[in-house]
Amino acid sequence: MANDKGFINEFKKFILRGNVMDMAVGVIVGGAFTAIVTSLNQDILTPILGIFGGMDFSSLTVTLGSGENAPVLCYGNFITAVINFLITAFVIFCLVKGINTLNDKFSKKPEPMAPVTKKCPFCKSEIAIEATRCAYCTSQLEEK
Question: pTM for this one?
Fold first, then answer.
């Protein structure tokens, strides 16, 4: 029984971990988004495309064989699913691109720091950038 409690506690820890919860939320939101895209395709785009093609894609079928029990290929549904996928992929691409653009716009990039030292041209020692004479070799430096 002691191992069962350890197993259950380990499972609880796994389920309540942040990335599992994020994934669950993503799946739920993805399902809702799929319903929206399917409705957009079936209720808006398919009728508009039907005007130009003269038909609704979802009704396109081919009967293989003859008789009542002959298998039917519903390739119109496949075309509808492909259109749904392309719309979904395009919308997600636009969302990610927009989020990345906003993230780049609002993220502060560190400004490059100005150099604080320079090399003495005579002894090659590191000296302060404002120095007019090398602290190591005492050479007079040109002012720039």
Answer: 0.46
Check whether residue 45 and residue 99 sit in a common domain.
yes
Torsion 94-100-101-103 (CA) sign? positive
> Are residues 84 and 25 both part of a single domain?
yes
Among 122, 143, 121, 118, residue whose Cα is nearest residue 132: 143
DSSP calls for 7-64: HHHHHHHHHTSHHHHHHHHHHHHHHHHHHHHHHIIIIIIHHHHHHHHSS-GGG--EE-
The structural domain count of the chain equals: 2
Cα–Cα distance between 52 and 48 in angstroms, integer? Answer: 7
Task: Give, rounded to a whole angstrom, the gap between the first and last alpha carbons of the chain.
Answer: 80
Q: What is the pLDDT of residues 54-68, one digit of tens each?
A: 556 777 888 888 888
- Provide the residue range defining the domain that includes 67: 2-106
Can you say how many angstroms the Cα of residue 28 is from the centroid of all Cα atoms in its chain? 17
pLDDT range class, residue 97, cuts 50, 70, 90:
very high
**CATH for 37:** 1.10.1200.120
